[in-house]
Amino acid sequence: MKIKILYEDSNILAIDKPSGILSHPDKFSKEETILDWAAKKFKKAELVHRLDKDTSGAMIIAKNNKAHEFLKSQFVNREIKKTYVAIVSGSVKNDRGVINKPIGRSPKDFRRHLAGRGARGEMREAITEYKVLKRLTLPLAPSLIRAGVASPDKGRTEGLFSFLEVRPKTGRTHQIRVHMKYLNHPVACDSLYNPGGPCPTGISRLALHARSIEFKDLKGKTIKVESPLPKEFEKVIK
Asked: What is the pLDDT of the chain when averaged over all its residues?
């Protein structure tokens, strides 16, 4: 596994996680994970947070327990700043907004979470800020054109999309994906929350990328790590 290192000191490692790799082992897969990779380099490595398998971008790893506890407290106290970019389905009306909607479990699929009506179990506070960077009309992937999935005002070959900057203020599982689904603008190419939905030509993975993460090191210095925009995103939004 080849992983690009974005930042490193004696306690903390920040990497550029590729799409398609699990952060942490689960009971459904035996494939190598980011934690497996880190543990080979640092025996006491621990994950401080996770990115979904198909999400790419900036991710921090603690090299030891002291760093893990220090970073974890920053997450708990909401001191860590995370910025994502996403391509979502449809033309988002407002230039910016805040989604403040608790997240629970889906009653139909154990893999999914849900905001709003129908959610089950413990409802956990979830807040997501977003800003529209660009509204786009893009050609649809050929398989979707054949299936008749397209924007009605652009014919059967194009769809409307929005390129967003997204800042989650809380850290719930699938938070951005769930909140964008709640807003009726699901993340493009999201096979779990929008199966069969519009997917622009050139994107073959979940269109969500962790652009940057800002935290304090053990000396109290503020560190901001940035992950380059994936090439497939660059081509689509140009």
From this structure: 92
Q: Answer yes or no: do 165 and 223 share one domain.
A: no
Domain that residue 118 falls in: 84-206
Helix locations, the chain, DSSP H: 34-41, 65-76, 142-146, 175-182, 231-237
Across 140-206, where does the E strand assignment appear?
A: 158-168
**For 111-139, how does the pLDDT look when each residue is reduced to its tens digit (9 = 90+)?**
899 998 888 898 999 999 999 999 999 99
Residues involved in catalysis = 52
Largest Cα–Cα distance in the chain? Answer: 57
Amino acid identity for residue 230 in this structure: P
Residues 6+ apart with CB under 8 A from 203: 87, 141, 188, 189, 232, 233, 236
CA distance 227 to 209: 9
In terms of domains, do 202 and 125 share one?
A: yes
Q: CA-to-CA distance for 176 and 206, rounded, in angstroms? A: 12
